[in-house]
Amino acid sequence: MIDYRPNSELADVDVKGMTVKLTFDNVKGDVLNVVPPHRAGDIANKAGLITANQRWCGIDWLTMESVAAKGVHVLGDATLSAPAMPKSASMANQHAKVCAAAVTALIKGQPVNPQPMMMNTCYSFVDGRNVMHVASVHTYDAAQKTMVAVKGAGGISTAASELEGTYAWGWARNIWGDALG
Fold first, then answer.
1. What is the C-alpha separation between 23 and 10, in angstroms, rounded?
2. Maximum distance among all alpha carbons in the chain?
3. In the predicted model, is pLDDT for residue 19 greater than 80?
């Protein structure tokens, strides 16, 4: 049985008693998975880049440039996510591509792409061979100055399959090659 307690403030963890003490409740379990509140890393905090909710780095989605420090570009999990944008390796890779294109344009004195698009694909193995996916596509909305999900693009698997497993391994090889060269 998995018991998910969102928006619960952690007061303490009793390791010997296998109990999580929350503000209004104590939860005992055979296995505890305590996930602290996420935020941008210490380096972003020390650099003064955290501008959103005292946790995330606000950015210009056209360049991935920090709103707090000109010429500093922020990617991946450190950013305040756009609406419906997951924090995933696939998305961080897309951030890097938009950023690289923008930095190149800025160095050359050229305009940046006014309509960047990003895609996300996450695969989950349900066993050694069968896989499911979730995918989304995001485009820049100039009026909102953020990325928004493209309606009707992306989706989720209807069922896990070995074919999706083949796709997952292909995706993995491609992103490893892309990121690690």
1. 6
2. 62
3. yes
Which is more confidently placed, 35 or 29? 29
Structure tokens that stand for 23 in this block: 């503000």
**Length of the chain, please?**
181
Distance CA 20, CA 110 (A): 54
Domain ranges of the chain: 1-36, 42-180
Q: Tell me how far apart the alpha carbons of residues 37 and 33 are, in angstroms, rounded to a whole number.
A: 13
Residue type, 130: N
Query: For 31-55, how does the pLDDT look when each residue is reduced to its tens digit (9 = 90+)?
Result: 988 887 889 999 999 999 999 999 9
The neighbouring-strand residues paired with 10 are 22
Output the six-digit token pair for 179: 């990121």
Q: Looking at the domain that runs over 42-180, which CATH code has it been given? A: 3.90.760.10
Give the E-state strand segments of 42-145 in sequence order: 50-52, 56-57, 59-60, 65-66, 117-125, 131-141
Place of tokens 């210490």: 42
| Cα–Cα dist 67/40, whole Å | 15
Long-range CB contact pairs, 70-76, < 8 A, 24+: 72/47, 73/99, 73/102, 73/103, 74/40, 74/44, 74/49, 75/99
